[in-house]
Amino acid sequence: VNRSLDKWFSAPMDAVFDATKDLDEIRRDFDLKAVLIVAGNGTVVRSSGDIAVSPDLSDRIIEKLGTKTVAFIEIDGYSITARRIETSQGKQVAAAVFLKPQSIAELTAKIADERQKYEELIQNKLSYRDTYVLILALMTVLVLFAAVWVGLFLSKRITVPIEALSEATREISAGNLDHRVDIKARDELGLLVTLFNDMAGRLQGTTRELEARRRYMEIILESIPTGVISVDADLRVNKINRAARTMFSAEEATTLDEIFAGDDLGSIRGLLQDAGTGSAAREIAFTTPGRPAHSAVTATRLTAGGFVLVVDDLTEVVRAQKATAWREVARRLAHEIKNPLTPIQLSAERIARNVARLPAATPRVTQVIEECVGAIVEEVSSLKNLVDEFVRFARLPAVSRVPNSMKDLVDRTMALYEDRLNGVKVAVDVPPDLPPILMDSLQMKRVLINLVDNALEALSAEPVQELKIRCELARDETMARLTIEDTGRGIAPEDRDRLFTPYFSTHKNGTGLGLAISSRIVADHGGYIGVEPNSPKGTRFVVELPVCQESSLSMTSPASGSR
Predict the structure, then answer these.
(1) In the prediction, which pLDDT does 200 show?
(2) Judging by DSSP bridges, how do beta strands 237-240 and 70-75 pair with one another?
(3) Is the distance from CB of 545 to CB of 522 less than 8 angstroms?
(4) pLDDT for residue 554
(5) Residue-by-residue DSSP string for 313-331
(6) What is the pLDDT at residue 521?
(7) Domain 2-123: which CATH class?
(8) 197, 292, 332, 432 - which has most CB atoms within 10 Å?
(9) What are the angstrom distances between the C-alpha of 264 and each of 98, 261, 319?
(10) 500: closest CA among 325, 331, 323?
(11) Residues 126-182: pLDDT tens digits?
(12) Phi and psi for 66 in degrees, rounded to 5?
């Protein structure tokens, strides 16, 4: 703006204006229409007046003057006096133009008016400059504002989707897989938003599928009777299923040392060492009381580090194998023993009769023979009872399971002991609303009688004689748990695992078949029988039987099983 205004009011322009002013004064002094200064080539150097000076006029003046110094010329109705003069720029021609047809006063006023306008223009030079600067500044501000607004608008089209994607990434990384980017965008950003939402959807679907599979595997892991223990490289417990927690009483175990101790821990560490980078298996007889007596343990090394221990409780299997073997022994013994017993008894009785008939028999001889024969007959009778037990153990009838009430079974059984308790305090707690049990009531009554008889015998010499019989639902209400607790002398820990083995008894006169037969009956019902110490003293027998399910109401034959 300054440069433009300076060009308007520059020094050359002022000089031209001054020269024109001088010419104008000359013109006014001599009442001329115009005054011209013309160069030798016909170019008008200076002019003053109110006529349009065309190149044709100046050329015609030079032509008319010719070589003369002064000439009077008539051109286009004007009277022109031309004279050659010497100036600093060389030889030039000064021409005075007289008005002939127009009013001199009118033209003079017009010149004065134009001069006044130019002087006003010079006086307003600064204000014009300020005005133009202000206008330019306003235009600059408007342009800057428009540029900023356009920049912000364009940047929002980029930054808003990017911020939304960043926020969505944080949400998804935090686990909120339902989060989606709702911002609409174009071009590559729009494609990126669409791909991100598709990725989030697929990730959510995959996560749900993995979670469903994890829950499915969790249910299977918690349902199987095999114990599963997962540990890391430092032998810290990562996962332990319900079967393992029950086997080893490890509800809150965090390390392998808290599950196994002593020789058991040494056996497990040796198995892990044998596993190396693969797997190893061995049978381990745990020595800790309350643990499975016989177990098949498999250790497998994980690629990510750590091990998985799979523990199969073989106690019931070993017990069943022993029971099967003993049943075969019992069958053969019964056959081999029973056959000669009757002849032996008859022969002894015959000897006694014949001796009594002999006339020479002395009373002493007769007494000895009678005592011997009586002993033989008594022992033969005892052997017959034992053989009968062998037969019952070897040939237990097949169970016929039908829905029965556990409360009715307990009530009928305890009614047999009303006159035989001899001061024993009995407490029975069997809810009447328990679901029915699929069982053979006659055989289960035999089991209950055997357990109650053992409890009463254990209480016979104790100062505190208490017997408790309770029944409740267990294992997610799929089993009915019957417990018989006494405050008797208890059972030694080393005898508990052998208690259900045939021909093992802690009683002086016991045959060792009662609990073996009871274990067989419970197993044929698909249940479990076990023994554990009572608190503070005594023994607790536990019998678990499956409750009646809707799909099992039509069952008439047992499904053999164990805990």
Answers:
(1) 87
(2) unpaired
(3) yes
(4) 46
(5) E-HHHHHHHHHHHHHHHHH
(6) 87
(7) alpha beta
(8) 292
(9) 143, 6, 21
(10) 323
(11) 787 888 889 999 999 999 999 999 888 877 777 777 888 888 888 888 888 888 887
(12) 60, -125
**Candidates 2.30.110.20, 3.30.565.10, 1.20.1440.20, 2.40.70.10; correct CATH number of 402-552?**
3.30.565.10
Q: What residue has token string 């032509």?
A: 63
Which residue positions in the chain have pLDDT lower than 70? Answer: 1-33, 40, 42, 48-55, 72, 74, 76-79, 86-112, 115, 287-293, 323, 327, 330-339, 356, 359-361, 389-398, 503, 507-512, 550-563
Q: Has domain 228-308 been given CATH number 3.30.450.20? A: yes
**Burial class, 305, CB count within 10 angstroms (exposed 0-12 / middle 13-18 / buried 19+):** exposed
3-state secondary structure 408-443: HHHHHHHHCCCCCCCCCEEEEECCCCCCCEEECHHH
Q: What tokens were used for 131?
A: 């005005």
Produce one character per residue of 151-178: b if its CB has 16 or more CB atoms within 10 Å, e if not: eeeeeeeeeebeebbeebeebbeeeebe
As a whole number of angstroms, the distance between CA 285 and CA 267 comes to: 9
Residue 256: per-residue pLDDT? 86
Rounded distance, CA 282 to CA 84, Å?
Answer: 141
Helix and strand numbers (H, E) in the chain are 14, 17
- Contact (CB, 8 A) for 26 and 37: no
pTM: 0.44
Q: Please state, as a whole number, how many other Cβ atoms lie within 10 Å of the Cβ of residue 477.
A: 10
Cβ-contact 438, 507 below 8 angstroms: no
The candidate with the shortest Cα–Cα distance to 460, out of 495, 421, 494, is: 421
Distance CA 13, CA 11 (A): 5
CB 438 within 8 A of CB 401: yes
